[in-house]
Amino acid sequence: MKKAIQGGKPLRVKPFPRYNSIGDEEKRAVAAVLDSGVLSDFYGSYGERFEGGPQVRALEEEWKSAFSVGHAVSMNSATSALYAAVGALGIGPGDEVIVSPYTMSASATCVILYGATPVFADVEEDYFCLDPEDVRRKLTAKTKAIVAVDLAGQAADWTALRSLAKSRNLRLIEDCAQAPGARFGKRWAGTCADIGIYSLNCHKTIQTGEGGIAVTADTDLAFKLKLLRNHAEAVVGGMPNPSPDLRRLWGFNFRMTEIEAAIGRVQLKKLEGLNRQRQERVDYLNSRLKNLPGIIIPPVRPGSTHVYYTHMLRVDPKTCPLDRSALVKAVNAEGIPVSAGYVKPLYRLPVFAGRKPKPDCPVVERLHFNEVIVNTLIYPPLTHQDLDDVAEAFIKVLGNA
Ligand SMILES: *Cc1c(COP(=O)(O)O)cnc(C)c1O
After folding, report:
1. Predicted TM-score (pTM) above 0.85
2. Could you give the CA distance from residue 24 to residue 197 in angstroms, rounded to a whole number?
3. Is residue 290 scored above 70 in pLDDT?
4. Quick one: which atom of ligand 1 is closest to the CA of 149?
5. Over the chain, what is the mean pLDDT?
6. Which label site among 125, 148, 325, 385 has the fewest CB atoms less than 10 Å from its CB?
7. Which of 199, 208, 210, 343 has the most ligand 1 atoms within 8 A of CB, as the residue to mutate?
8. What is the predicted pLDDT for the residue at 194?
9. Ligand 1 close to Cβ of residue 335 (< 6 A)
10. pLDDT band at 241; cut points 50, 70, 90
11. C-beta separation of 73 from 229 below 8 A
């Protein structure tokens, strides 16, 4: 069959259905909040309402028990949760923080907000997460923390990162925006660092439109997170014995509303089932793609589970009959919207340009510009027939390359 990119008939013309995790239960939960008239119930000063309204507090309780963690602090986004995490850990001017270049921008910009210096370390070619060996090479006497991302749906190498942090007295932040419900050994992803953050934005497997959650086992950090999301006025607003290290905390309004919290409670109940449905679809698709020439199916980290926020594939330039860009263009022409690469390595953003130290991350450059293909067509209600179209497009393009 002639390839669509050469003027042949595209394999698929029908658009794929969109992902939508929202249903009647969320509608009823929102209606109940509206009926109550209480859309948010936060006070900045210290007291019961410092912790927010009933939906916010219930979501936090349920998040804590779902992920077996001591404290959960809801926010209006994961970006806000990252900012609050950096602030709560007392990171500031003169401190260096190791960050990943292959992630959404906030996982690295959170450091700049507090005047600290982001230092990019490279990623692992198999898992796309921070490479602990390169992190070790980039440590200096000024390194204070590491922000590692559980990219695409599976955890970073927290065994190595935790042991590095222990031996060098570093703090750890886990950006788990893409991997809620994934396991890392005996732990849940998101609970492997001093502070973990989750996203509930509209692109994630479970969502509240916009929203985020920070978790920690540490009571002092949890309290600082709560201060930071809520103006940090309680320091002079009736809080008993504010400790001296609160003086550098400037607060924000990062508060989640009751509407989002009510939706989040319903969504959290659906998480496990939604993750399972993605895993089933990826397994099926992988079974159809695994023998194609030049296509690498990235492994799942031993001892971990993968919840597939995205389905990352790689091209092996040595054996693939087409280069990555040509392959993606040809598959797109067949009506299958996969992408070449994820986001450009973050140090290419203007906000990081010209900063020292100069980034040196050859693996992410190679992965992003020559090897990675991102497929998001792994969600319910896609059927095996839909997934067959995805696989057949690769087979058609590579079969007669
Ligand atoms: C989505 C995402 C964020 C930010 O989430 P928001 O809730 O939109 O602020 C941060 N990090 C990663 C890795 C993400 O995928």
Report:
1. yes
2. 28
3. yes
4. 13
5. 95
6. 385
7. 199
8. 98
9. no
10. low
11. yes
| Model confidence at 242: pLDDT above 70 | no
Nearest CA to ligand 1 atom 8: 201
What pLDDT, on the 0 to 100 scale, is given for residue 237?
Answer: 67
Sheet holding 295-296, edge to edge: 295-296, 311-315, 372-375, 339-340
Residue 200's alpha-carbon distances to 48, 153, 204, 398, in angstroms, are 25, 14, 6, 37
